[in-house]
Amino acid sequence: MSIHVQKKLWAVILSNTLSSESEWLEQRSQSTVMELMTGFVAAPRFLRKTIIQTKKNESAEEFPSPEEISVTDWSLVRLCRVWLLLKLEELDPKHFKQNIETLFDTAEINELVALYSALPVLSSPEQWLFRATDAVRSNMGLVFDAIALRNPYPSKYFSDQAWNQLVLKTIFNDKPIHLIMGLDRRKNEALAHILSDFAHERWAAGRVVAPEVWRLTGPYMNEKLLQDMKALFASSSADNHRAAALACGESTFPPALALLEEHPELAIQIKTGTLNWSDIEFKELNTYVPQP
Amino acid sequence: MCLNPNESTPNPSHFEDSDQQIANPAHRELAWEDYRELIKDMKFFDPHIHMVSRTTDDYQAMRQSGIIALIEPAFWLGQPRTGLSSFKDYYSSLVGWERFRSSQFGIKHYCTMGLNSREANNEPLAEQVMEILPLYIYKEGVVGVGEIGFDDQTAAEEKYFRLQLELAKKAKLPVQIHTPHRDKKNGTERSMAIALEHGLDPSWVIVDHNNEETVKSVLDQGFYAAFTIYPFTKMGNERMVKVVEQYGPERIMVNSAADWGISDPLAIPKTAALMKMRGISAETIRMVTYQNAIDAFGKSGQIDVSDFGSDQSGEGIDKFHGNSILRGGQQLNPSKESLVIQ
Q: Which of A1, A79, B170, B272 has the lowest tally of Cβ within 10 angstroms?
């Protein structure tokens, strides 16, 4: 556990709580393990249901960096629960693993969200690898989101196989992959090729694929993916054209580069930096809705 | 579980011992489709329904009929449980998977936690359940201890009923009391007497599954009286209308207790339509199908009506919980009439 992160989280908490709330947290964190764990569970009974603000004023203490833990748009309860988990470790390091397992085994949805959010800042984070992959298996949307989106844990600790499952399930669930941390760094050839198969299944079903997913393919371009790029350019969607152009532009496969040159306007936009992946990052996907 | 050696029905549900026949339902002339217009602007709260045994079709139909929030009491399994893990997984599902399933349809899901009276009869297991129950009752969205009370009215049932009343008091939670199917009147009186003996405020106690014979005493003693509209059995909704006409709306609430038996998740909207037809005021209907349940279980501090799905049409449900949680653009209300499945 990082004392450092714990202090930064406390700074965020102080800038978002009433004194009665921070006092309750301090009191719970300094009592017994059982009180603290019950506090983790009962937090919504003592804290307001509100979304935290992470804009700092100048005098504010240092807040955690997104690479440590990303608290953007969290509820106050989620934030405080993560902090309580760090205090739980401090209070009884010897039984910490067992206590966390108990909390996992009996957790409701929002508790699971807090537990998975805390994984990157617990000590020996790799010991929670199985739990983390279990969250990817979860069909509870909020639980899946807690591990998959804006969480630095998977990119740091997942195997390629587990990572690819996470990315594919995010795509399958119609969620925006650009919210996955480390997406670019963990690109790999296997994922690019599975993605091509996935797109073919979707197209066969008369459904679409979110354009930004092709950002995973550029460096692995081959004859098969090239055909996909052609299909994208041939589609009626301007965003698909942009996706294909960007993917080809990131490739070293000569036929892909040649294909890009057939679309000079897009090629220029890429060269001048006026087109990049962030232009086709959408949050509302709805790729399952039949297209006209 | 049922340890009554004389119990012959393998899977008795809420009202297993009806002596009425399932065939020949009355009033076929009143078709639900013809009367649902009457309630099109109403919203409903079902304070007792076992969604783990219901399908997504039910969820859709409920939402389309105006049910925007519900309470799922902890129930029994329908067959004996073989260990503590079965309870843990069930309790977790009430605050996990089922809560999520419900949210997909824009219905806010609450629950009550408890050891069911039938299952209290397996004492070695009941003992272990009591140890883990405190882990669950403080959870967000747990609005009471329930459904607890008597089934066979055994000594074991009484023991765990009393222990759970104490737990509710400690946790400052309302209590949802299941009253027995057999020897109902005595069982109901006994449940209330024990609750009072433990010092519970009757306005924190919801006595469930009432009928014409039990309601007066329940109301007179200051308890909430819940009525379960369950087809072919104890309480039909026409009789419910008469009860409301006689006693008024105060501290009365209607529920479906729909479960894995033949039951109706639309019992509340149907009863509301019937009340409307029979000239009961909109305000009274609102009290017994919505507000009273919120007032009673809201004492837990866990009900916030701003969390309820507010959009009657069921549109925009994917934004429920402030998050897009449906799998993709899954259509919310695929037409049941269409031959084509997309």
A: B170
